[in-house]
From TrEMBL:
Catalytic function, reaction form: 3-deoxy-alpha-D-manno-2-octulosonate-8-phosphate + H2O = 3-deoxy-alpha-D-manno-oct-2-ulosonate + phosphate
Binding site for Mg(2+): D17, D114
GO biological process: lipopolysaccharide biosynthetic process
Keywords recorded for this protein, A-Z: Hydrolase, Lipopolysaccharide biosynthesis, Magnesium, Metal-binding
Protein name: 3-deoxy-D-manno-octulosonate 8-phosphate phosphatase KdsC
EC number: 3.1.3.45
GO molecular function: 3-deoxy-manno-octulosonate-8-phosphatase activity; metal ion binding; N-acylneuraminate cytidylyltransferase activity
InterPro entries: CMP-NeuNAc_synthase, HAD-like_sf, HAD_sf, KdsC_fam
Superkingdom field: Bacteria
Biological source species: Psychrobacter halodurans
Family in the record: Belongs to the KdsC family.
Function: Catalyzes the hydrolysis of 3-deoxy-D-manno-octulosonate 8-phosphate (KDO 8-P) to 3-deoxy-D-manno-octulosonate (KDO) and inorganic phosphate.
Cofactor: Mg(2+)
């Protein structure tokens, strides 16, 4: 676990897929043909926690959905790229458009994906994570498999790990509890 925490401590940008990561992967249509998705509130708290400590977040998804834009705004996601089947090209383009002063390369990114279109992007970044119900080939190429499935707090697990790696986890938790840490922002 310490190796994962150390690796997570280098993350400057968390990139997430949507279907199967931020949602459970199901696409539900109502009688009018309107698509709906369910998102985890815990993932939202996790994503917001990263922003508090200057860690950027992005979504790269193959589908396009107004619900994704809405949820991304609610969570404070910095970059949203929709309708891109080639996730590696989308990631490369995203990194190229970042302010050079941020000094973020693929090695500084974590990527969460669950299916075959995510593999190339996951192989390019410094930290690759997935969910337990991901495709076997994705699991095989991941640094970490969360205990929770997509849409049920899997992103939160990675956010917490990133906070631990950066030494902010205890300070983040102290913000929500009556207990106080000695320094207010220490690691494990």
């Amino acid at each position: 676990m310490q190796d994962l925490i150390k690796k997570a401590g280098k993350v400057k940008l968390l990139v997430m897929d949507v279907d199967g990561i931020l949602s459970n992967g199901q696409i539900i249509y109502d009688a009018n043909g309107t698509e709906t998705k369910a998102f985890s509130v815990q993932d939202g708290v996790g994503v917001k926690s990263l922003a508090r400590y200057g860690i950027l977040t992005a979504i790269i998804t193959g589908r396009s959905s107004p619900m994704v834009d809405k949820r991304a705004r609610e969570m404070g996601v910095d970059y949203v790229v929709q309708g891109r089947d080639d996730k590696l090209i989308a990631l490369t383009e995203l990194l190229a458009m970042l302010d050079p002063a941020l000094n973020i390369t693929a090695a500084d990114c974590a990527y969460m994906g669950d299916d075959l279109p995510d593999i190339k992007a996951m192989q390019t970044v410094g930290f690759a994570a997935t969910v337990p119900n991901a495709h076997a080939e994705v699991i095989k190429r991941s640094d970490m498999v969360t205990t929770r499935a997509g849409g049920t707090g899997a992103v939160r697990e990675i956010c917490d790990l990133i906070l631990k790696g950066h030494g902010h986890y205890q300070g983040f938790i102290a913000h929500y509890t009556l207990e106080q840490t000695q320094t207010g922002d220490e690691g494990l």
